[in-house]
Write a structure and sequence with these properties.
Chain B is of the alpha+beta class and 169 residues long. Chain B is 33% helix and 15% strand. In chain C, strand 6 and strand 7 form a beta hairpin. Classes of the chains: A alpha+beta (150), B alpha+beta (169), C alpha+beta (283).
């Protein structure tokens, strides 16, 4: 599943970039994300992602690896996790780009999301909808956090 | 499988008194035990099959109080106070039920895997509607799948049995 | 093989509420189990306790005596397809119930369970919305009525509170001029698209038109925008507006591309079914 999102933030690029690497606060913007930890500064992080669709709950202990980094403009990362209780695996390939536009920062990201295992039984359509919702909420939360502190 | 499971001392035990193929049985089951497993494992009646395990194919059809249920998705304790009929209970000693006889005479089965479910379901149909039209038969039997016969012979068998059963009464 | 759970068998709504409140997410109401047990077998959900509600009295009756039709939440689909009262007053619902899943699911599955599990690919919700039904939710000492159109929040999600139990479905008494129809389409075990229409038909015009679509999207939805194209119109004019109403209803269905079909395909089928449901209801 591919998703493309763009969010305009009323904050300078440096501030947005700094925020991204402030792991605790940044990961806190992911709905359902908890216990964010830095394993290797700038390279490896961990978190637990909990999501719910009706009565179906998944808890993915996730490892996030930063693959590429271009100061102030680009991040490529991969997140993967497995919920052994439900027998499902999750993998997200994330491509984040920052650019300045007037006095705003435009954060655009492309997310390739793969869900394997039992969870897929819920139906591709439902999962896609949920993933879309989560990404939207995430983008909005980042925006709010950054703009709120101006 | 139920036998192999160790009973924990804190396991909840539900007494189930029911008739199985006409005989009174009194057993204890745990809430999570499925009727399919109890009938197959505890009573050794393996005519009922686990096939799709999601209530779609009908190979696990049993009759509870004369009505078809998916044994794969029925908790065993639900038959307390009820009567359960399996394919093994259909014949009268050596005398086959007209449905069984008809399935043989009309070629209503090939591998036989769906057959116990087919016959029990068709018994429930004919008990409710002794003279079904082909459409009524197909509607009732919609949830019993067969991969071998193409259904034509099954329909013929049931219609033939129905005719025979009507002429007897 | 299911995982072990504890069975509770309360005999009052208050008890059920109390158990749900006390044990929260680790407990679940269990009636026919036709959806719940499948999810449990798949390992998609896990409960320490199942609360068997089948010992609650008075929840499995159909009462059509005085106007409003009242259907107990514990009525099985089989009971509903056989109900003489419903055959007389709501043949469209009887036809729907006759065609739910298969004979074994109809035997065990309850209408309340069907509505509460809120599987997107289900039938009754769509027609109940078109019939203007209300759903009665109870807990300990409180009771409230929820319009069917407001009951289905999202896939597998209803507006029931965690400690509420659905006890009854109420449908406004149909009049001599009431017409309704539900049509579904699908090749898989569960329906892929469902459309319901209801209206009062007098000599001159159609009134109180209600249209609902289900199965294609995450939850059944009422489509007021499509209704407006038929409301107050003559049969002939309504007929001319059907294509447009169908297109609107298709988009309103929030159709999701999946194994059942692409979004475009489902939207198209919604339009087709609306036309046919209208013809079926009119005649």
């Amino acid at each position: 599943m591919q998703f493309q999102k763009e969010v305009e933030i009323l904050a300078p690029r440096e501030k947005v970039w700094k925020f991204i690497w402030d792991v605790d606060r940044f990961i806190a913007c992911v709905p359902g994300c908890k216990e964010a930890k830095t394993l290797e500064d700038g390279k490896k992080y961990s978190a637990i992602i909990v999501e719910k669709v009706g009565p179906f709950k998944v808890e993915f202990p996730t490892t996030i690896e930063v693959l590429e980094r271009e100061e102030l403009s680009h991040i490529k990362a991969q997140a993967s996790g497995a919920d052994n209780k439900i027998g499902s695996r999750m993998k997200i390939d994330l491509d984040v780009n920052l650019r300045e536009q007037d006095n705003k920062t435009v954060v655009s990201f492309i997310a390739g999301v793969d869900i394997l295992g039992k969870l897929a039984a819920l139906g591709h359509g439902i999962i896609k909808r949920k993933a879309d919702q989560v990404l939207d909420e995430f983008a909005q939360a980042v925006k709010k956090k950054l703009e709120g502190e101006a | 499988m139920a036998k192999a499971m160790s009973r924990r001392s804190d396991a909840q035990s539900i007494p189930v008194s029911f008739t199985l193929n006409g005989r009174l049985q009194e057993i204890d089951v745990e809430p999570h035990e499925l009727l399919l497993d109890v009938v197959r494992e505890k009573f050794g009646l393996t005519g009922v099959k686990r096939s799709c395990d999601v209530q779609v194919c009908g190979a696990c059809t049993l009759l509870v109080d004369g009505r078809p249920v998916s044994a794969c998705t029925t908790l065993a304790f639900e038959v307390r106070g009820r009567s359960v009929l399996t394919i093994e209970g259909l014949a009268d000693g050596d005398k086959l039920h007209p449905l069984q006889q008809a399935f043989i005479e009309h070629g209503g089965f090939q591998c036989g895997f769906c057959t116990p479910g087919m016959i029990l379901a068709s018994k429930a149909l004919l008990d409710e509607n002794p003279n079904p039209t082909e459409d009524e038969l197909k509607h009732f039997m919609h949830g019993n799948l067969c991969r071998c016969t193409g259904y034509k012979k099954i329909i013929e068998s049931i219609m033939a049995a129905a005719k025979k059963m009507r002429s007897k009464t | 093989m299911l995982k072990r759970f504890r069975l509770e068998e309360p005999e009052s709504i208050a008890e059920v509420s109390e158990l749900l409140g006390r044990f929260g997410d680790s407990s679940k109401v269990y009636a026919g189990g036709t959806e719940l047990l499948l999810a449990m077998k798949e390992g998609l959900v896990d409960y320490e306790r199942l609360i068997n509600v089948k010992k609650l009295k008075g929840l499995n009756e159909v009462n059509a005596a005085n106007g409003t039709i009242k259907i107990g939440a514990l009525c099985t689909h089989h009971q509903l397809e056989c109900s003489t009262a419903l055959k007389e007053k709501l043949p469209s619902l009887v036809k729907l119930e006759q065609n739910v899943a298969n004979v074994r699911v109809r035997q065990a599955g309850t209408i309340g369970g069907n509505l509460c599990f809120a599987e997107p690919h289900a039938d009754p919700g769509t027609l109940l919305i078109a019939l203007g039904a209300t759903l009665v939710a109870e807990k300990s000492s409180a009771k409230r009525e929820i319009a069917a159109a407001d009951f289905f929040v999202d896939a597998y999600e209803t507006s029931l509170a965690a400690d509420e139990v659905l006890t009854e479905i109420r449908i406004p008494a149909p009049t001599a001029n009431s017409h309704s129809a539900y049509l579904k389409f699908g090749y898989l075990e569960r329906p892929s698209v469902g459309v319901a229409i209801a209206f009062e038909q007098s000599d001159k015009s159609l009134r109180n038109v209600r249209i609902a679509v289900g199965c294609a999207g995450p939850a059944p939805r009422r489509v007021e925008e499509a209704e407006a194209l038929l409301e107050g119109k003559s049969t002939a004019e309504a007929q001319r507006n059907l294509a447009q109403a169908g297109a609107i209803a298709g988009r309103a269905s929030e159709a999701i591309s999946d194994l059942h079909g692409s979004q475009d395909y489902k939207e198209h089928i919604v339009g087709v079914l609306l036309k046919r449901a209208f013809q079926s209801a009119i005649s």
